[in-house]
Every structure is written in C-alpha cells, then in structure tokens.
Amino acid sequence: MPLNYEKLKEWSFPPVVQSVRKRDVQFYALSVGLGRDPSDERELRFVYERDLVVLPTMPAVIAQPGFWVNEPSLGIDLLSIFHGEQKVTLHRPLPTEGDIAGQSRISEVIDRGAGKGALIFVETKLSDRVTGALLCTIERSAFLRNDGGFGGPYRRHPPQHMIPERPADLQCDLPTTGQQALLYRLNGDDNPLHADPAIARRAGFELPVLHGLCTFGVAGHALLKSVCNYEPARVRSIGVRFTATAFPGDTIRTSIWRDEAGATFQCRAIERDTVIVDNGRLDFA
C-alpha cells in the first residue's frame, strides 16, 4: 500500500496531557546516562530530588503523540522509517512537576521521488495545562526510506547548519550501555525495533538499535557538561540531524565548535568510526 498523502495532510492529532512528576525527570536523566559517577554533584542535580532540575532535551519525550505512524490507512512502511531531525526550543523552564499539555501537527510532507524516500515534519507545542503558558516547541522529522514517489509536491529540504571547516574546540566522550535502549524505551517509545532482536533483523540490523532521541539526550548531556557548566537555563534551543544508527554499547564522541551565540556539534560512534549526528546546533538563552 503506497503512502496516503491526502490522509497525512488531513491527519489530526488529539491533544495529549501528561502529568510530569519528579520521578519522570529523574528517570529520563538516568536513561540518557547521567548519574554514572555517584560523587559528581553536578550530575546529581538531574537524578536526585534535592534541588532537582530538568535536562533541556527532556521535552522531546513529554506529551508526544505516540507511535501514530503505525496507523494502517497512512500506508507507511514501518520497517523503513528513521528519525531524521530533532529540535527543542525552550520558551520557559520546564517544571519538575505539573500537568503538561501537548498539541502536535504535521507541518510538512516532502516527496523526494521514487526510490529517494519521503520526509514528514511534525511540530509539537508544550504548554502548562493550568496557566496555558507556552513552555517549549519541539520539531522533528521522519525519513521514510521506501515511501517516496507517492505524487506529493517536491519541496527543497530546509538548509542545514554547517560544521566549521576547522578542528573542533573540544570533545566529550560518553559511553552507552547494552541495556540503554531497554531503559530509554520506558520514556514512552514502544517501537519494538529498539527491543526485539527478530524485528531488528527484519529491518536489516544485527541487534536492536538505540533510539535517536536517546542519542539526542546523550549529545545534550555532552553540551551541557562542556559549554554550559551543567546549567540548563543557559540553553535556548538544541537541534540535530541523525545520519546513522547508534547501537546500545556505543561510545558517543561529541565534537564541539564554540562561538558567542552557542555551539555547533557532531557526534560519532567511536568503536565503529561512524558519524551518527551531524549539523548539530545549540543556541544559548
């Protein structure tokens, strides 16, 4: 069944309300690797209820629309879908407890042509359910490897933030564990590609893959540590483009180029010498 462009254009997401509690904040930080050194008080702020603060990448898992692409009438090939890009823009500090309302919409569908795939862009706005105050805007895209050529209009992909043509100013290496994907999926991503070896093999992988958003969280940790002195209030926005699959157990090296407004970055899986995140950008508040 080909991708149903008309159905996608008309797709309406129901509002999602999520009650965020301190344990959710702590678990998210643990699931992306913080707290490995129990004596590091800078990381302790994200995993211990005393003076708890929220990681800037956490909004990406709050009040999201779920695994909606598995709706059969959309005609999406689930084994060929990959996370393309992700960006979080913070308008206000995210509370460690409270009811968060999320409203999503499909902002763009790009047909790259037969054999070239397609792109779906989704925007989610998170607000405080009680006050209505806008907290953050989340933008993400999905690359549908086998779903191009459905007859949708061709549009040029938005320009990427380019990596400087000079050596990085600094690097930060952070390990992942063999159970990282199994932990991270408890944030609400139930795609079996991240847990079931048989499904991973059907998709062409030797083992379950690490979530793109987990890699996003690891990169966010590296930047928070390296250029923000673990102060989340310094982050205005962070965005990435996923270029290759990460696997549980990879050591992720984040190369960082600093400037006055923020930092440009790229992530590589060291053991496989593979760039898994490119064109990354962090802007200071």
From TrEMBL:
One Pfam short name: MFE-2_hydrat-2_N
| Annotated organism of origin | Ferrovibrio xuzhouensis
The identity of this protein, by name, is MaoC/PaaZ C-terminal domain-containing protein
Its taxonomic placement starts with: Bacteria, Pseudomonadati, Pseudomonadota, Alphaproteobacteria, Rhodospirillales
Q: Which residues form the MaoC-like domain?
A: 164-272
Domain Peroxisomal multifunctional enzyme type 2-like N-terminal, chain residue ranges per copy: 20-145
